[in-house]
Design a protein that fits this description.
Distance between the termini: 46 Å
Number of strands: 0
Structural class: mainly alpha
Radius of gyration: 27 Å
Number of helices: 30
Helix content: 55-70%
Strand content: under 5%
Oligomer: single chain
């Protein structure tokens, strides 16, 4: 999937792509055709920077309901010839998830589209998972022959079916189909489930990796072999060292951390970091300065996992380094720094936004740190990140930081956050949004009554308004 093109934050499309609450509010105030055009653009061209962790589907589904939007464009998107040419989940996943939410709100046209796509579309498994949560038993049973028809009654087809059944995210349809009296349905699904269970048992009985009695050298060799296969085993290898290493092995482990092969060096650095060896911080700095990229990455990761005061103290000296160790040091200070570290964290926060923009990965830790340390003078840069970032998760973190640093948050961004795409951001808004704004109480009541809303959000509302939000 290509990186999405995100419109400016001051436009309706840009607001909707980011999933901001102001996107919904502006869409409801805009001409309906314009709002629906922007909404469909977002649903058909997924704008998320990371579609596997960021939420948009409920946000867009609610706006479809508010605008009484039709599903013609989603239908054309799902059933176009491109569905055969591009079978990546990212092309259709958001549209299918939106249809799932619309079906849960009672939109029968959305339910019909999901059934049709599950029967004929390339990303049928996603559609089936949506239906597993929303459709009735009769609707799911009606899809059995269409879905099973995708797997030819051959050895290869049966093996593929067994793998699909074993790895199904939502097992409900397969359980229903296993009870079907027809041999071509029930008998076949039951056989696939048995094969999948046997495969899982076999994998459990054939574990690969360390065995009792391994030596330190054997663990290092295992870590190196993993790297050759493309598997990074620094952490599990470090845990293995913890089980097999004795005091007499300490010098060999230190030497591996200083100049060993990449797999051994990464395992040794993590082991020494976890055991709080006094020499590990110098070894980490040496690995970053003179080691390979793999060794440097392992050293930085080991340092980020250290929790002791020695790591925090060293981070104060490394925080201004212009490399990955400097970024890790800033993250450590943001997460575990103390009073007096505010200036360092704020300086790195400002420089990161200036040099790398409002979507830099390091901002997640720095924004959290600004909130944790209560850096009130960070509010202007936090407000900039909130407005401009394309990541709804980073915006949610920023909202929480603003709640701790910006006195205007409760009457400003907290209000729009009630319409945000991320449930954690709506939860923050439910805790802080000022009730003097007439929109706030009404929105809180609607969210409290919405069966699709997350329990944490509704719990925050009840904590704020009491057990009966309608009375407010």
């Amino acid at each position: 999937m290509f990186d999405p093109v995100i419109a400016p934050s001051g436009t309706l499309l840009g607001l909707l792509q980011r999933g901001r609450g102001d996107g919904t509010l502006h869409a409801l105030a805009a001409p309906r055709d314009e709002a629906l055009a922007a909404l469909n653009h977002c649903v058909l061209s997924d704008p998320r920077t990371d579609w596997q962790v960021e939420n948009r589907s409920l946000y867009y589904a609610r706006l479809f309901l508010d605008l009484d939007g039709g599903l013609d464009q989603i239908e054309s998107h799902l059933f176009s010839v491109e569905d055969v040419l591009d079978t990546e989940d990212s092309r259709t996943g958001l549209a299918l998830a939106v249809l799932g939410h619309l079906a849960s709100y009672g939109r029968s046209d959305a339910l019909a589209l999901l059934r049709r796509y599950a029967a004929t579309g390339s990303n049928w498994a996603w559609a089936l998972d949506e239906l597993a949560l929303r459709d009735d038993d009769a609707g799911l049973r009606g899809l059995a022959t269409s879905v099973l028809g995708r797997f030819p009654a051959t050895t290869e087809g049966d093996a593929e079916l067994a793998t699909t059944v074993r790895d199904a995210f939502e097992p409900r349809p397969w359980r229903l189909w296993a009870d079907d009296p027809r041999d071509e349905v029930g008998k076949r699904v039951r056989a696939a489930r048995e094969t999948g269970s046997f495969d899982r048992w076999q994998r459990q009985m054939r574990p690969s990796g360390p065995r009792p009695g391994w030596s330190v050298r054997a663990v290092f060799d295992w870590a190196d072999e993993g790297l050759e296969r493309g598997a990074v085993l620094h952490l599990p290898a470090a845990r293995c060292l913890g089980a097999v290493a004795g005091p007499e092995d300490r010098d060999a482990i230190v030497e591996a951390a200083r100049s060993g092969s990449d797999g051994a060096r990464g395992a040794a650095l993590h082991y020494l970091a976890e055991s709080c060896d006094a020499r590990v911080l110098d070894l980490i700095e040496a690995a970053v300065s003179t080691g390979s990229r793999t060794a440097a990455d392992a050293a930085v990761h080991a340092f980020e996992r250290m929790c002791g005061p020695e790591a925090v103290d060293r981070a104060r000296g490394w925080a201004r380094r212009p490399d990955q160790l400097g970024a890790a040091a800033a993250s450590v200070l943001a997460a575990r720094g103390e009073a007096g570290d505010e200036k360092l964290v704020l300086g790195v926060l400002r420089e990161t936004v200036r040099a790398e923009g409002p979507d830099a990965p390091l901002l997640r830790a720095l924004v959290d740190g600004a909130g944790r340390l209560g850096i009130s003078c960070a509010a202007p840069v936090l407000r900039h990140v909130y407005r401009e970032t394309a990541s709804s998760q980073l915006r949610g973190r920023t909202a929480r930081a603003l709640a701790a640093t910006d006195p205007s948050f409760a009457t400003g961004f907290a209000v729009e956050c009630l319409w945000d795409c991320e449930e954690t951001t709506r939860e923050v808004a439910a805790q802080y949004a000022e009730l003097v704004d007439a929109r706030v109480a009404d929105r809180l009541r609607r969210l409290a009554a919405d069966p699709a809303e997350e329990a944490e959000v509704q719990s925050a509302i009840h904590d704020r308004l009491g057990p009966d939000p309608t009375a407010v």
